[in-house]
User: Fold this.
Amino acid sequence: MRTPRLADPDAPARRGFFARAAALLVAPWCFAPFARAQDATSIETIVPAIRDFTKGAQVRKGKVKLDLPRLADNGNSVALKISVQSPMSQADFVRSVGLFSEKNPRPVIARFYFGPRAGKAEIASRIRLAGTQRVIAVAELSDGSFWSDTATVDVTLSACLDAS
Amino acid sequence: MMLSRIQMPQSAKRGDVIEIRIAIQHPMETGYRHDELGRAIPANVVNRMLVRYGGDEIFRAEMGTGIAANPYLAFFTIAQASGEVEFSWVDDTGETGFAKQTLTVEG
Assistant:
């Protein structure tokens, strides 16, 4: 009677299993940077309604700062602040700011119109969010360029879709 | 007539950038809620608010159901001359609201 030798025949398979398990664990961190790069380039694919706002113009990241809490306990009212870097002079000012939601049943939250008399391109309000999602602010400047910022909010209690 | 609360300075120095805050009492119905008999409550939101200062438009907001109930907006303007800051808004049913506040500009 031969005693089965554990080490020899099984070892390669077992080693392979451990190697694959380790790769699986590491994989999400490897791909994370790529996922983030994709987020930055394609806000129109997240919210197609942005195309109606920009009429197809290119949207660059920057100049706009969208302040939203990282975690919102109640999606029925989430405080937000949008500020746009601009001298707000007669020659160079922010015309309007569009606010878009990734997952709300109606993706266009609001549109705010400014002028050089605003002095400061900043707006604060409170919005509804139907679930954890990205919120995008797009600013239209007087020279016709568009700039954006994206914020991700984790929403514990979602708005809109429940009967409350 | 819809109730509103406006917070802004009563007086300012010429050239100062002042903050104006307004909250309007309105349910901002989404159209996704139902009453106790199961009937859908139609969507009704304050869809437009216009702010004039000395007769000129200084700020305008177009809002949808994504704005929370009792819409609150805070924005800025440059104090140029003494005058009235007038706020007017309208909801989906056509009901309008109006409020105004006097701003005294010194210097």
